[in-house]
Amino acid sequence: MPQTRSVLCVVGTRPEAIKMAPIMCSLKEITDISVRLLLTGQHRDLLSQALASFGLIGEANLDLMQPNQSLSGLSARIMGGIDSILEQNPPAMVLAQGDTTTVMATAIACFHRQIPFGHVEAGLRTGNLSSPFPEEFNRIVASHAASLNFAPTEGARQALLREAIRPETIHVTGNTVIDALLATAAQKPRLSLPLPSDQRLVLLTMHRRENFGRPAAQIFDAVLALCAAFPDVHFLYPVHPNPNIRDAAHGMLSRSPQVTLTEPLDYPEMVAAMQRATLVLTDSGGLQEEAPALGKPVLVMRNETERPEAVQLGVAKLIGTSRRHVFREVARLLTSPADYAAMAKGVSPYGDGCAAARIAALVANSVLDATWPVPGARGATPPARSSIRLPTVEPVPAPPPQRPSPMPDTVHMA
Ligand SMILES: CC(=O)N[C@@H]1[C@@H](OP(=O)(O)OP(=O)(O)OC[C@H]2O[C@@H](n3ccc(=O)[nH]c3=O)[C@H](O)[C@@H]2O)O[C@H](CO)[C@@H](O)[C@@H]1O
Prior knowledge:
By secondary structure, the protein is of the alpha/beta class. The chain has helices at residues 14-28, 44-53, 71-88, 101-113, 135-145, 154-162, 176-186, 214-229, 243-253, 267-276, 285-293, 308-313, 323-335, 337-343, 355-367, and strands at residues 5-11, 33-39, 60-61, 93-97, 117-120, 148-151, 170-172, 200-205, 233-238, 259-262, 279-282, 298-300, 304-305, 316-318, 411-412. Helix 1 crosses helix 15, helix 4 packs parallel to helix 5 (135-145) and helix 8 (214-229) packs parallel to helix 13. The longest helix is centred in the N-terminal third of the chain and has 18 residues, at 71-88. It starts with a strand and ends with a strand. The site of ligand UD9 has 24 residues, from helix 1, helix 10 and helix 11. Its EC number is 5.1.3.14. Keywords: Isomerase. One of its GO terms (molecular function) is UDP-N-acetylglucosamine 2-epimerase activity.
């Protein structure tokens, strides 16, 4: 009789929840595995909203955020909190997604306890430790600690190989955000906001630390200039709660009748917004992956990206953050049908909606010592589209209280 083995998924922020949800769903279909969900609460409100969108309940929440805490303080608290859980109820494997301090601290805690760690979305790199900071460093630590690296693309696999990560740990699976997106889009989500139906919609998001201050002011200035030049265009901007962005956004944009500023949207509403939009203007990683899959051009307000595939395919473009560039590139897509059509191809380099099924099979093979075929791998039957049905989550006991050189496949802006 096979023994049930547990897999602990650790999640700290909104995108981690969105990208982990399909994996939890797929794992739950494997009866010999029990799925546990631990929250670190790194982004408290946004995390709760994203979990609710997928019907996930974190049974234990380390809730470690404190005002003005240092990165080292946060790392130490996360590591201590997770270590207690690993000690009390050791899982067969731990999974974490992305590049936050949650992921880095989880990877180190697993390494110290010699518990297998699987890194979801492995191999994203800018090649610049200062940008994104501290995420680029977090990614490198996670890759080295992982016994399974789930690379979303072949480019990510190559980036891991260049760092001498053992090839047998690396599996190209696609990105689970495409699973979440396609499953959510299939449910035909509605946009409940009152938006003018006779205007073209530009979906705007911005949250990155590098864009606080002057870049944000330049971008908002460009938005106002675009509103003046294109009276038939409306901007929808779900504003990130970080006060560095929120205050500037409301201060500069709230008086324009062509801009709708909202609280962050829940995921189905966000998918509906992407579907309704003519184009997406963003500095988000997730939106760079999602919008091309819906056939929407993405203008990326950064100078470099660790997601070069969409840029190389021509469905995303790095435009920097200057007022002049943002205005010019948005105006080009609004006025030139040929330029628009060249970007609105409806192709995604980030997956086919089956990444979670592949990851679940690889995890099962590892923790159950099985050799099941990995869906979609050479010779295996391609899986059905992943389902949005989500697992019942097993409670995780709360821990005791704590005392108080650019790479060849990295794209840079020309
Ligand atoms: C340094 C860096 O590159 N880090 C990235 C960053 O991820 P990001 O840039 O993708 O983060 P966001 O833009 O906040 O989230 C995006 C998701 O949220 C949905 N969304 C958005 C607005 C809204 O109102 N409602 C929503 O539902 C949206 O559709 C999408 O799925 O952190 C992750 C680890 O936390 C990393 O792994 C990831 O590399």
